[in-house]
Specification:
Layout: E1 5-8, H1 14-23, E2 27-30, E3 35-38, H2 43-54, E4 59-62, H3 65-78, H4 81-88, E5 92-95, H5 98-106, H6 120-130, E6 136-143, H7 147-155, E7 159-169, H8 175-185, E8 191-194, H9 197-209, H10 213-220, E9 225-228, H11 231-238, E10 244-245, H12 252-265, E11 270-272, E12 275-279, E13 283-286, E14 289-292, H13 295-306, H14 314-318, H15 327-341, E15 347-350, E16 354-357
Helix pairs in contact: 2-4, 3-4, 3-5, 9-10, 9-11, 13-15
């Protein structure tokens, strides 16, 4: 992903995500779109935990490893963990994924079942197939309610106990997030990654607060790719008709690999003057070598590459250079672009008409 700039909105695992992207060659802009607040001092969590210790649930669903661990750790600070864990030993434990499964085992418990897809939907299907009528089902939430999940269980006759282990709030310092939004709306970012629905909703909410939501939605609906970890994460974006992409497997490694496929596919390679050109977000690869360009020169190259081989007149290219530019500025910018690309033959001058990329194929030369 050399030549691309990717924004990371994650609150946790942001460093891991950024490292994976940089390893792929991307430039990373990171700012958390939310803040995770553990409820270790929350009376509601304490009350629910006491209730489950006194009257164990028939089924306990662990949705996240960090959430399940946080739940047990909070009870340890209150001195009630032993009673909660004793109660859970009488329950059937379901883990949504391997991290939740690991947290269950770290607490000295054993899960009954975990779906291979790591999907809440598959957990729900499993419960409904097994039958939940008359059962008490405790569901560990992961930052926000799971209305579809819990409603389906209640409709099937279960008594549902929601366990709010932590919640999402806006970041304490929004300056970094505001800069990220500015970069996205200003064309300085090629893709934005989302690892949770609250992060997607938080980015939109902050943009709304600062009067930038319309521009943000326009950017994410246009040149900026919205890359989500899964369909649940994508829902707040889809509510604004923003096109979204996600991998088959809801893991950040899979998310980065899918992004590494999607972004280059948006910029087809061109055979020009004996070279292989691959335009990117803030750079161009010429025969595999990265040439970083200024925003102005990048806009100029994109205009030429958007209609490869066709002649673009000076007035057309002038729009890439800003309101104060004149026709002489086009000539100067083309000269700088030729120098930056390393071979002046890549951009051909068509006398009295304008400029074009000198494609090796004869197509589209009019």
């Amino acid at each position: 992903m050399a030549g691309f700039t990717v924004a990371v909105t994650a609150a946790r695992r942001a460093e891991e995500m950024s490292a994976l992207l940089r390893r792929k060659g991307a430039r990373v802009v990171a700012a958390p779109a939310l803040r995770i607040v553990p409820l270790s001092d929350d009376q509601r969590l304490a009350s629910v935990s006491d209730e489950l210790a006194r009257r164990p649930a028939d089924v306990v669903v662990a949705t996240t490893g960090i959430g399940f661990r946080g739940w047990v750790e909070a009870c340890e600070t209150w001195g009630t963990a032993e009673g909660l864990l004793d109660g859970m030993r009488a329950s059937r434990l379901l883990a949504r994924g391997p991290k939740a499964r690991g947290a269950i085992r770290a607490a000295g418990l054993t899960e009954e079942w975990s779906p291979p897809s790591e999907s809440s939907a598959e957990v729900l299907d499993h419960l409904l197939e097994q039958g939940v009528r008359g059962l008490r089902v405790a569901v560990q939430l992961h930052g926000e309610p799971l209305p579809d999940f819990t409603a389906a269980l209640r409709l099937a006759g279960a008594e549902v106990v929601e366990v709010p282990v932590y919640r999402w709030t806006p970041p304490e310092d929004t300056a970094a997030l505001d800069r990220l939004i500015e970069a996205v709306t200003g064309g300085g970012v090629d893709a934005v990654t989302f690892t949770s629905a609250p992060a997607a909703a938080g980015l939109l909410a902050r943009a709304h607060t600062t009067g930038q939501q319309a521009r943000l939605v326009r950017a994410l609906s246009g040149d900026v790719l919205a890359m989500c970890v899964g369909p649940v994460t994508a829902r707040p974006l889809m509510a604004h008709d923003i096109p979204t992409v996600w991998p088959d497997r809801a893991r950040i490694g899979s998310q980065v690999r899918r992004l590494a496929e999607e972004l280059p596919a948006r910029f087809p390679a061109l055979d020009v003057a004996g070279h292989r050109l691959r335009p990117r977000g803030h750079a161009v690869l010429v025969d595999g070598v990265v040439h970083t360009l200024s925003p102005t020169l990048m806009r100029l190259l994109r205009a030429l590459a958007h209609q490869p081989g066709r002649v673009l007149d000076r007035s057309h290219l002038l729009t890439c250079l800003g309101e104060d530019a004149d026709s002489h500025a086009v000539e100067s910018a083309v000269a700088r672009l030729r120098t930056a690309l390393g071979d002046p033959r890549i951009i051909q001058t068509v006398v009295k008409r304008g400029y074009r990329l000198a494609l090796d194929t004869p197509d589209c030369t009019s």
